[in-house]
Amino acid sequence: MIEYRLYCLDDAGAFTKAHEIMAESDQHALQIASDMKLPFKCELWERGRKVATLNPVAARSGTDG
Question: For the stretch 24-61, what's the b/e string if a residue is b when 16 or more beta carbons lie within 10 angstroms of its beta carbon?
Fold first, then answer.
């Protein structure tokens, strides 16, 4: 397993939160991060290598269609 970090950013681009993700590959880590559906822009890192930038997931209101 590979250790990844998912860093969430505020509107100014500063890191506000970090989540540790253990995954078998970049794709697996990206899937785990995407499934978290965070309402913040986040960056997925493996050590000093940025793997991906994830856009915020919009908050849902109302009921499902």
Answer: eeeeebbebbeeeebebebbbbbeeeebbebeeeeeee
- pTM over cut 0.90: no
3-state secondary structure (DSSP) of residue 32: helix
Contact 8/18 with Cβ under 8 angstroms?
yes
* Structural domain boundaries in the chain: 2-54
Please list the rounded mean pLDDT of every run of 10 residues in the chain (65 residues): 97 93 98 95 97 86 48
